[in-house]
## 1
Amino acid sequence: DRAVLVYSNMIRRFFKGTMKKIVISGIESSLRRITHYDYWTNKLRKPILFDAKADILSYGMGEMSMLELANALKNGEDWKNIKGLCYLSKEMKEDYLSLPSHSECLVDKDKFIEAFHTFYLNCDPITAKGLYQKCDDRYLIQNPPSEIYSEEIMDKIYSMEFARDVHPYYKKMGTVRALDTIKYSVTTHRGCYGECNFCAIAIHQGRTIMSRSQKSIVDEVKNIAETPKFHGNISDVGGPTANMYGLECKKKLKLGACPDRRCLYPKKCPHLQVNHNNQVELLKKLKKIPNIKKIFIASGIRYDMILDDNKCGQMYLKEIIKDHISGQMKIAPEHTEDKILGLMGKDGKSCLNEFKNQFYKINNDLGKKQFLTYYLIAAHPGCKDKDMMDLKRYASQELRVNPEQVQIFTPTPSTYSTLMYYTEKDPFTNQKLFVEKDNGKKQKQKDIVTEKRKK
Ligand code: SF4
């Protein structure tokens, strides 16, 4: 638990005198970089740099800022303006935006909401300003995020010689099951413009899709296919959302993500042109590689984008159903009730129904017997027993399933849903919000959906 704090403390203790700077990074540091809600202690915590015995925090995916930082440290140059870094300072930065201080957030939930809005709106590599937040007698300084990585940079990163194995130290201790799903999994892109309110991807990887070239992905799969112990299955080809590969809004790439609207919610923005042709082409190339038996798509798929693509959506869906799933396709509507979906920042159930019909029709046409599995969330802020009963009714009557994949909402640091959970307010309307906080009652919400019908 709290790996960043534990490791940085140990490094500080055992490498006294030899170590110059400790740099923390990765998802834990990234999501805890300003004042944040911590579910374990049910409290707001300080920006993590105040608790970890570290000097610098690199947020986001971080390759380029780490390279620049390493060079600057090696050459004895000033590193304090490198993008994608946070550090502590006795002084604020005049040209940066001020967030409500940590102590203001502690006593006033509206100040915490204000801090989060400003933080969220300053994550875009093109438009973001630097930020600072006072905590005790110092300031957390957050430089603007790293630039959008070009296809060339993405290809370079993924052409490095990753070992695809556990560290020899752990290998001696036995099998690491967690490796099974990632050993032969291939990343096609980063980022997500779905912006579901419970998800931290937009904060960590950004709203802008950064994709690899088809050639780079094909080369990686060829390399895997030649490894001696490879059995022929690629467990996933995708990213945060599989079918966003290569699809980005031109306006966003030039001017940055819109601060006042979302790309897919409440309806897909007309500036986002969705065409799955490129993805179908890629999958067809991957299938032909010698030694490949099956390429799975295990990453989530936005079915609303498939429906929106009049030209190639059907072709893509058919390709997936025919060759890239095995028995079942997992989709994540998360809920079916409009009020809760609105709080989650997700589209309504009409789209779900249409997709379901198309999925079963294509399976029927192909003579396949495959099923949809639905991922759902119980006890999201705003959700009451009645909403789960309505979900259950919809699932039984319309979807004709008894959902099993239901998870209880867990507040992750730095998401809008977590902000709702802590403040018990809708941060977009400032209205009070019911939030189920009792563990037994959260479980009850889940049980309403998962319990089998009595005979
Ligand atoms: S114009 Fe539309 S698709 Fe482009 S960034 Fe803005 S909301 Fe997203």
## 2
Amino acid sequence: MASAFTDNNNVYASKFDKGHLPLPPANKLAVVTCMDARIDPAASLGINLGEAHVIRNAGGRAPDAVRSLVISQRLLGTREIAVFHHTDCGMLTFKSEELHDIIKKDASPEAVKAADAIGDFLAFPKIDENVKEDVEFLKGHPLILEGTKISGWVYHVETGKVSQVV
Ligand SMILES: [Zn+2]
């Protein structure tokens, strides 16, 4: 797949005309969402190039996004956060301990130690509850700016629709 990058990029770059955009996101918005390959945050939410930060990780988990959010807010001026989790997320299918067990089975002692350093892989059993939990986490986080508008959403991979939870 990576072998096609250059060819694909040549096509993209030949039509590219957005090189003038400023660094800070125009909509002062940061979206936290899952890395799931079926989600296109920009297209599904109508976000154009230069308008928002999109922070992606496994599950769209807020605790995993704090480092990026601090940079987004303090250095690049965003003042709104939207947290998205989604239906059929891989994070609903395992428990953190199970992933630790998988790693312990065949990985080196160094790898096991590195996994221990990660600790919680932040899997979760219920989508809506976890969206609320992540929004509360951000609202109570000392590094997230006071007055930040924070909302929580679910993206439905079956329909492409979003619904607001909080
Ligand atoms: Zn997911």
